[in-house]
Write a structure and sequence with these properties.
heterodimer, A: about 350 residues, nine-stranded mixed β-sheet, 16 helices, 11 strands, B: about 500 residues, alpha/beta, five-stranded parallel β-sheet, four-stranded mixed β-sheet, elongated
Chain lengths: ~350, ~500
């Protein structure tokens, strides 16, 4: 670890110092490695722009050589740090505003510089059929070598994780430090992702996950990836920040389309109106982003299943109506529907309707 | 002179013979009752004195001592009144009451000398009969429940004077006519019928499977979807109560004092719907005398918990043990009593506190943490005991008015009866009766899956994100579906149908 990296790590561990001050301090030095030789520039800056308390904390820590123990701690920790001065800092992040100073990583660090990266995000309240779409797209992308980037919440994020976790092409971005992983609802998935893929955060281990971190964190999704898929979202949900960042950073924005009056997808429809790509399947993403995704082979259907599926494709989604149209008994129909569901042709939503997935 | 009369006291669901010993002799007038009597029994001396006088009999002013033996058992309730009064009359020696010792006497006295009905007559008579007693005098009010006790001589009388007339052979009374229990009693007297439920084909089939295999069921759906109406149809498709079952249920209701005096025996399967503010004690049983709770009253029937997450968590958790063991032991300071509690649990809930979560065209205003909290009320071990979990969706107006003929409860019940018969035959050596009660051992023995079925389960776990716990539930339900299909082996289509009965909760 060189001096520049050490300096940045020390700065980042001044946890109460705001991001803009850290940024300014880094910019003040021609070479941030000189922080240790000439701490007075930093001290003066803090005294002038931040509060005297910060300046005191900084210089006291400096005199006591706190950085040595920090570096020591970092080197012995079960995580690694990629600073913006490191060689493996992702190029895609280098050019964005407010790029993270440090990325704390657990897992396969090389994924940060993978050639193809794509973000899939959405709200916690996503309808089951859209969760299924989300998982399918995530799984198709990741198995063909595209690294899927997503968060760790329930709903769309979780589906994206489930789709990608087996292939290992998965980056999860946390909104808090590593010491707070156990507080997450999907901690088991996160731990699995550490083993198979990569989990990153811009917060030092001791920073808890706070609500206002989420919108800030969302810039990493947009920054790291070539494109962003929005699975669901209302005008209120945090997903809209991801969409904004994607726009600001000139990334491709993809949205799943929703029917009118569907509250959980109002953001997607609005974004499509504003020019986002309407996305029905993974091919729509591949065409724009030049990903090379092999088409998934569906399991063939039997004749009866095909008959049921044709009806569903024509919009007959209620069990009662299917019974009427196909002249089947309810106990003959349910196994067929389950089979279609398992083979991935349809999905049952919370209203007992079977929705065509293809 | 000393008189000895036999009566009974109630201890849980068992009757205990009590010997009422009365001694009347000259001395300072007094009236003492000894032998661990509670307030209602102590107070009987006032009722007895008035009843004797108002029946036109002489009440001698002497020293009266009454002993209730065995002396170490706590006696409760007013059913010893009659025995005490008859004992006094006999001890006074003024009436010709020679064969009183043949009879077991039960009943509460009114001040005018008439006999009032008491709770728990049926369990007391059943115990007495098994102990060899066979002549009884009971209040007329209790004649209906007593008429199902066969092979005994029971006189159901109106007043103390009638009892004296019977005992002194001044007048002939006809003994209580015995009634045969017939299943036809329980038919056609339900208010609800499955044919009244329009649409909901999926849910109705799930209900049929649940009842056929004795599986507990959870319905998830928005308000007004018809969950309660469907649940109320459960008793109509449950198999008819056998006499033994009817007796068991009647005994519990008799002890709780909830028996309808018109019918005497409970022929309809009970359907209990406690309100969600019900306390643990109300549900499980208790109170100072360890009375049965709602789950015991639902024995052989249905316990329907509407809006399940609104119950307190401890109430729901307290159901786990009775769901597993099918009995509940209620322990209190004065008693520790085991009550049967073999019921089918049927629950309903909304998908979230506001009820619209996951519905396509509706807006859910709940935050995610509210929803998580709401769902977390049902713990995983409790959900493990609920084999069938289905979503119920509100029916559209067009379906409500459509002329399509829905299947009646009667024809569904026929299929359920056949499936239950297969299960009884299968489990005759296993000490269980339904598929829902199967343990891991039984699953291995009776639910062998072929390779194709195993493959279906494996792929469904991957593509539908099922939890590992779901496997046992699916296999149990598939076993019931196979029984409904008269199939000895579980076929892939049965597994597939079972996979259909799950909700996203």
């Amino acid at each position: 670890m060189n001096d520049r990296e050490k300096a940045i790590i020390y700065l980042d561990f001044l946890t109460h110092l705001e991001y803009k001050h850290k940024r300014n301090i880094i910019d003040l030095y021609d070479d941030i490695g000189n922080l240790f030789k000439d701490p007075s520039i930093c001290y003066d800056y803090l005294l002038e722009n931040a509060s005297p308390n910060y300046a005191k904390t900084f210089i006291d820590g400096f005199k006591l050589k706190v950085y040595d123990s920090i570096i020591n701690e970092v080197e012995n920790g079960d995580y690694t740090i990629v600073t913006e001065q490191s060689d493996n800092y992702p190029t895609s992040l280098k050019n964005i505003d407010f790029r993270p100073i440090c990325l704390y990583c657990k897992g396969n660090e090389s994924l940060l510089n993978a050639k193809y990266k794509f973000s899939i995000v959405g709200s916690r309240k996503t309808l089951p059929e859209y969760l299924k779409h989300c998982q399918d797209i995530s799984s198709s992308l990741s198995t063909s070598g595209v690294v899927v980037i997503t968060g760790v919440a329930n709903g769309a994020d979780k589906s994206a994780i489930l789709g990608a976790i087996d292939s290992g092409n998965l980056i999860l971005v946390l909104a808090g430090g590593f010491n707070y992983i156990d507080n997450e609802q999907n901690r088991d998935l996160i731990k699995k992702a550490i083993e198979k893929g990569l989990v990153i955060t811009e917060y030092p281990p001791d920073i808890p996950t706070l609500a206002y971190h989420y919108p800030i964190r969302n810039r990493i999704f947009a920054g790291l990836s070539q494109g962003v898929l929005i699975c669901s979202g209302t005008f209120k949900s945090g997903t809209k920040y991801t969409a904004q960042f994607a726009e600001n950073y000139n990334k491709d924005l993809f949205c799943l389309p929703y029917s009118i009056n569907c509250n959980s997808g109002e953001l997607c429809n609005k974004l499509i109106k504003d020019g986002a790509y309407l996305t029905e399947s993974v091919e729509d993403i591949c065409q724009v982003c030049n990903f090379n995704v092999s088409k998934k082979q569906k399991v063939p259907l039997t004749d009866v299943e095909q008959a049921v599926y044709n009806q569903i494709k024509d919009g007959v989604v209620k069990v009662e109506l299917l019974i009427e149209k196909l002249n089947l008994k309810v106990y003959e129909l349910i196994p067929l529907l389950s089979s279609l569901e398992i083979k991935g042709y349809v999905i049952k939503n919370n209203s007992n309707e079977y929705i065509n997935l293809l | 002179m000393l008189a000895k009369i036999t009566s009974f006291a109630l201890y849980g669901l068992e009757g205990l013979p009590i010997s009422v010993e009365v001694d009347v002799f000259n001395g300072m007038p007094s009236f003492e009752i000894v032998g661990l009597a509670d307030t209602a029994v102590k107070e009987s001396k006032e009722r007895v004195r008035s009843a004797i006088k108002n029946s036109g009999k002489h009440f001698r002013n002497g020293k009266i001592t009454i002993n209730l033996a065995p002396a170490d058992v706590k006696k409760q309730g007013a059913y010893l009144d009659l025995a005490i009064a008859v004992g006094i009359l006999k001890a006074q020696g003024e009436e010709n009451l020679d064969d009183v010792s043949d009879y077991v006497m039960l009943g509460e006295l009114s001040l005018d000398g008439s006999l009032r009905g008491v709770n728990g007559i049926m369990p007391m008579l059943i115990s007495a009969k098994s102990l060899g007693y066979n002549k009884f005098i009971i209040p007329k009010e209790n004649e209906f429940e007593a008429s199902y006790i066969n092979g005994t001589t029971i006189y159901a009388l109106n007043s103390l004077s009638e009892v004296v007339e019977l005992l002194s052979k001044q007048k002939e009374f006809s003994k209580l006519a015995e009634k045969e229990y017939s299943v036809s009693d329980c038919e056609d007297n339900y208010t609800y019928d499955l044919s009244y439920v329009k649409g909901q084909a999926f849910c109705k089939r799930a209900l049929e499977v649940a009842v056929a295999g004795g599986h507990n069921m959870l319905m998830v759906g928005p308000p007004g979807a018809g969950k309660t109406m469907i649940a109320k149809c459960i008793p109509t498709i449950m198999p008819d109560m056998a006499f033994v079952e009817a007796l068991e249920t009647t005994k519990i209701h008799s002890v709780a004092g909830l028996l309808n005096n018109k019918e005497g025996i409970i022929t309809k399967r009970p359907f209990m719907t406690p309100h969600h503010t019900a306390t643990n004690t109300a549900l499980i049983g208790g109170g100072p005398n360890a009375l049965p709770g709602i789950i015991s009253l639902a024995h052989n029937g249905v316990l329907y918990l509407d809006e399940m997450p609104e119950y307190t968590r401890s109430t729901l958790e307290s159901l786990r043990q009775p769901l597993e063991d099918r009995v509940i032991t209620v322990s209190r300071a004065k008693a520790s009593i085991q009550y049967p509690a073999s019921f089918m649990l049927c629950g309903s809930m909304n998908p979230c506190p506001c009820g619209n979560y996951g519905m396509k065209d509706k807006i859910c205003n709940c935050t995610m943490s509210q929803i998580t909290k709401y769902k977390a009320k049902l713990s995983a071990p409790l959900l493990d005991r609920i084999d069938i979990q289905v979503t119920v969706e509100g029916v559209k107006y067009d379906d409500l008015t459509s002329e399509s003929v829905e299947e009646s409860s009667k024809s569904v019940k026929r299929r359920v009866n056949l499936a239950r018969k297969i299960q009884l035959e299968r489990f005759k050596d296993d000490n269980i009766t339904t598929n829902a009660q199967m343990s891991e051992k039984h699953l291995k023995k009776y639910c062998k899956l072929n390779k194709e079925s195993e493959d279906i389960i494996r792929t469904s776990f991957e593509s539908l994100n099922l939890s590992a716990r779901a496997r046992t539930r699916i296999i149990k339900v598939a076993r019931t579906i196979a029984d409904l299909d008269f199939s000895e082996n579980i076929l892939p289509k049965h597994i597939l149908e079972a996979i259909g009965y799950r909700s996203n909760i």
